[in-house]
Amino acid sequence: MSLKRELESGAFVITAEICPPRGTDTSQFLEKARLLKGRIAAANVTDNQRAVMRLSSLACSKLLLDEGIEPVFQVTCRDRNRLALQSDIMGAWALGIKNILALTGDHVSAGDHCSAKAVFDLDSVQLVQLINTLNKGTNMNNAPLRGSTGFLIGAVVAPEADPWEPEEIKFEKKIAAGASFFQTQALFDMEGFKRFFEYAERFNVKVLGGLLLLKSAKMAHYLNEKVAGVTVPQALIDELEAAPDQLEKGIEIAGRQLKELKKFCHGAHIMAIGNEESVLRIIDK
Question: What is the reported pLDDT for 265?
């Protein structure tokens, strides 16, 4: 079943991220993907996540498709101008990819090629609008296409952003631009997310709560210090620090969060960041 049909069915939908390799050897990438086959509705393929150079999201999305795994092709504004964005997006559709997630992208200063020139020709709202335009059969200059796209358009929202008001404006702009589903940034304040979800239900969109696997207390501290819009509560950090096996505790925490999301949300998006094999254990818990 396609991701679109899964979302429309009303079932609780689980997606997960798979990071492309830092080279052309795709054996481990595919091995991890095969573990998740049949257990998740779709797999997001990240686009040079954290501005670290990896094999292209487009190529890896096609590899997943060939394995019978529904891909979500992630596209960022950081690396391409509007010409390249349109070309790659149409190319993805021509290859049979049906789902796309539009993101701004982490700045190059966060990655492994700090001297690279960031593009940001469009922002994430404009990127959603661009994809919607291609779906309707024209390019950004309103010239008709010889064959349109038909993507299920996704976007990102950070419910724990502080201040919230700018994020709220972007969320509603993305909906107006054509986004039909959202995967959130990492969630740790579940009560706060419930309030956001009640607000989001006023719109005709699906929301998948983002679950980030905390591998260690050190990682949690890093998130609090370096990643905007993500706050790991001290209580969870204390749990991790007290655990004899911090990764195991992180899997347990994510399992608890997933169980809570199933009570009210449309679904969950699991981000294990290189520990994709742990996704199955989170689901099982």
Answer: 98
The per-residue pLDDT for 80 is: 95
Q: Tell the residue number behind the tokens 């956001």, with chain if given.
A: 196
Domain count, the chain: 1
From 46, 78, 41, 42, select the one nearest 59 (Cα to Cα).
46
Distance CA 201, CA 217 (A): 34
Pairwise CA distance, residues 31 & 262, whole Å: 28
- Bridge partners (DSSP) of residue 270 are 16, 211
Could you give the CA distance from residue 16 to residue 39 in angstroms, rounded to a whole number? 10
DSSP string, 154-223: EEEE-TT-SS-HHHHHHHHHHHHHT--EEEEEE---HHHHHHHHHHHTTSS-EEEEEEE----HHHHHHH
The per-residue pLDDT for range 160-198, each reduced to its tens digit, is 998 999 999 999 999 999 999 999 999 999 999 999 999
CATH code, domain with 144: 3.20.20.220
Dist CA 285 CA 281 (whole Å): 6
What is the reported pLDDT for 109? 78
- pLDDT on residue 267: 98
Host domain of residue 13: 3-284
Enumerate residue ranges in the chain where pLDDT < 70. Answer: none
- Amino acid identity of residue 103, one-letter, is L
Structure tokens of 191?
């009560």
- Cβ atoms 276, 18 nearer than 8 A: yes
- What is the pTM (predicted TM-score) of this model? 0.95
Residue 114: predicted pLDDT: 86
Q: Comparing C-alpha atoms, which of 136, 58, 70 is closest to residue 99? A: 70
